[in-house]
Specification:
The chain is of the alpha+beta class. The chain has one domain (about 1-80): Alpha-Beta Plaits (2-Layer Sandwich), CATH 3.30.70.3090. It has two helices and four strands. Strands 2-3-1-4 form a four-stranded antiparallel sheet. Helix 1 (about 15-30) crosses helix 2. The radius of gyration is 14 Å and the shape is globular.
């Protein structure tokens, strides 16, 4: 599998809707396409006007497999780009909880 980044723009109007979409995405990947697609992580971004988007990192056999996964899970897949290298300056920060 190769590494890809998927940009999902303005996909959700609430954290709850995003959570439901994430559950569908995980289920489709794990149960229907485990040999083709593997979700690694996502960054949730504020698209403005209270709308949420994501930047997602996936392993997949092809961009077509990622489009199929998105269609099955009911997700946008506005842009899909192969990752050609990684520059890690620091690990992702850990969110602090009260």
């Amino acid at each position: 599998m190769d590494l890809y980044v998927i940009r999902r723009r303005k996909g959700w109007t609430s954290p709850g809707a995003l959570g439901e979409a994430a559950a569908r995405s995980k289920r489709v990947g794990d149960e229907e396409m485990p040999e083709e697609v593997r979700w690694i992580r996502s960054y949730v971004v504020d698209e403005g006007d209270g709308v949420l988007g994501t930047v997602c990192v996936y392993e997949a056999v092809s961009p077509e497999a990622l489009r199929d996964h998105a269609a099955r899970a009911g997700l946008p897949a506005d842009e899909i780009a192969p990752v050609v290298d990684t520059v890690l300056v620091r690990p992702d920060p850990v969110a602090l909880t009260a």
